[in-house]
Each structure stands twice: as structure tokens, then as C-alpha cells.
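Per your request, structure below.
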């Protein structure tokens, strides 16, 4: 995976014989991303669990399973190219615990960006068979 294509400049062609349209061979996942209050970088909540669900869905839909590296690299590339859409970091308020240790007392604000990876059978195939082409 080396590049990202904006859908408005290179739309995904969907043909009437597309397996995803005719047989529902599409899977989605959803990852919550938040800006770190200390570094400003994107933090993704449990991407390994999302990857495992994505692989399980691919298996059930007879779609090729993406590698862990491809899934994570895709996520990294999407976030890097869309950091301007990531909401500001939450405000973290600290306090002292009973033992005198500094603890996080409260986190305010900090909306999330929701990223939706999709894997679909995008080839032309009539009949319930694995798609000859996929799009991630």
C-alpha cells in the first residue's frame, strides 16, 4: 500500500454484476480515533480487535483476508492524510489520590473521529462465488 486515492477524484466503479451489490459480499469495521492530549498524535482504540473482526468477516464472506501489516498500514495512511479532521484533544485534569500519587481526575471534551475500513467484492461475477476482485 503506497498511496491513497480520494474518492471524489477516483470513484470506485461499480458494475451491475458486482458481487457486493448482488450478494452483499462487503464487510465494514469501525475504529474510534482520538487526539492525544500530550503529543497531539492520533490514538486508535484497540485496532488489533478491529483487525481480528475484519479478518473473521472476510473469512465468512469468502473474501481474501488482509494481512495485519496491510490493515494497520492502511489505517496509518488514512489517519496521516486526514489529521486535519481529527478533533482537538480532550482536556485532562489531574488530582492527587489518597496515596499522594497524581491521578487523572477528569477528561473533558475531545470528540472522536470514526474511521470505517471496508472490504468488498468488487469484481463482476454472477452466481454466489468468491469475487474475482476486491477493494479495500
Amino acid at each position: 500500500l503506497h498511496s491513497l486515492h480520494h474518492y471524489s477524484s477516483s470513484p470506485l466503479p461499480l458494475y451491475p454484476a458486482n458481487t457486493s451489490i448482488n450478494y452483499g459480499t462487503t464487510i465494514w469495521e469501525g475504529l474510534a480515533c482520538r487526539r492525544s492530549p500530550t503529543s497531539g498524535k492520533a490514538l486508535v482504540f484497540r485496532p488489533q480487535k478491529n483487525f481480528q473482526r475484519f479478518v473473521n468477516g472476510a473469512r465468512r464472506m469468502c473474501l481474501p483476508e488482509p494481512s495485519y501489516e496491510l490493515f494497520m498500514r492502511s489505517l496509518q495512511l488514512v489517519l496521516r492524510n486526514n489529521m486535519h479532521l481529527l478533533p482537538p484533544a480532550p482536556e485532562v485534569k489531574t488530582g492527587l489520590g489518597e496515596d499522594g500519587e497524581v491521578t487523572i481526575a477528569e477528561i473533558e471534551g475531545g470528540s472522536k473521529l470514526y474511521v470505517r475500513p471496508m472490504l468488498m467484492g468488487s469484481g463482476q461475477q454472477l452466481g454466489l462465488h468468491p469475487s474475482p476482485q476486491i477493494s479495500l
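The longest helix spans residues 47-60.

Regards,
D.
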